[in-house]
Amino acid sequence: MTRFSSARLSGTLIVSLLLAGGVASPATAAEIVTPYPTVRAEAGQTSTFDLQIHSDEREPVQLDITDAPDGWDTTFRGDGREIEGIYTDPGGTAEAQLDVDVPEDVEPGRYEITVSGDAGSGDDSLDLGLRVVEQAADAFELTTDFDTLRGGGSDSYRFDLTLVNRTAQEATFSLSAAGPQGWNVTASPSSEQQAATVTVDGGSQSTVNVEAEPPENVSAGSYEIGVEASGEGTTLQSTLTAEITGSPSMTLSTASERLNASGNAGETGTVTVTVQNDGNAPLQGVDLSASPPSNWDVTFEPSTMQNIPAGESAQAIARITPSGDAISGDYVVTVDASTEGGNDSMEIRYTVETSGWWGLIGILVIVAAVGGLFWVYRRYGRR
């Protein structure tokens, strides 16, 4: 019993001395792990694996893909940058991400990718799996609560659309919008008016603003605006409508754009009157009238313009007859154009000139007076 106890004590002492002498176990090779080695993916999307690299030494670990399906793109990232290797610290964990771009034309099924790590302490590999499934029909959606807006021809139309991402990963879409010829239409995320793309987090949604400005002198009516969001292997479309209500507007002028005319007393002169429709709806039943001096007569041919389309004009002849006893000088004739949608007026300065007959009569009177004086001189001048 004593001999056995002594031997046992000696063995225990030897083990204790070896441990106290610092005899260490061999170092562990670098190891690559991930909390989710198999994920669900959809064609045309990017799946991301979070990688953790462990090592008992501070050393660089070279990362590589040693096995992947043909046509699949992979990228290692660290802190948002593309990387090819990573440093480890003893007792710590180095983190990296692997982005796997699933082609749009890939068939549903299970696919595997192998990640390798080459380190001085030893190599390691990690098998990752992706189960590609068909994209749900409602994975993404582009909607709006108000797809029709109503306003005038000079208004700007702003639509708010919602881009919904029902998948588990973020999705990026390119935005585009187009309207009728002459319209200025833009589409952008609400957070950045100058951007042409929008990124939506998984299970989230973003607002897209669409602004449309009609051209000048646009006619009343309904105008369609098309919006597209393209990305993630799909194209989302939405059709918006801008309804422009009619607002006629008129401008009254003369064909020569001169607001003066002339004529003799009692004689009829003509002025061509022009009514311009500056609005975006037809002018209906435009009545012409005038306010001339007393005893003057003004008529129009025609006196009513039945229809003037938007952006066009119509003409009428104004026949102005001063009174027969009007003396020479300038007179004002006010011309009015009125309709249910509005009215306009202008003043024409009408100059009454002396008739040529009165000039001839004056000359004859002068000649007669001179002749009479001459006769008087001849008859009585020598006495």
Automatic annotation (TrEMBL):
Q: Which Pfam family would be a valid example here?
A: NPCBM_assoc
Tell me which domain of life the UniProt entry assigns to the organism this sequence originates from: Bacteria
Q: Which InterPro entries match?
A: A-galactase_NEW3 (IPR018905), Ig-like_fold (IPR013783)
Indicate the segments forming the Alpha-galactosidase NEW3 domain, all copies.
41-115, 265-338
Q: One GO BP annotation here? A: carbohydrate metabolic process
Keyword Transmembrane appears in the UniProt entry: yes
Q: Which key words are in the record?
A: Membrane, Signal, Transmembrane, Transmembrane helix
State if Mitochondrion is listed as a keyword: no
Segment forming the signal sequence? 1-29
From the record, give the transmembrane residue ranges: 356-377
Per its UniProt record, what PANTHER family does this chain match?
ALPHA-GALACTOSIDASE NEW3 DOMAIN-CONTAINING PROTEIN, HYPOTHETICAL MEMBRANE PROTEIN, CONSERVED
Name of the featured protein:
Alpha-galactosidase NEW3 domain-containing protein
The source organism is Phytoactinopolyspora halophila
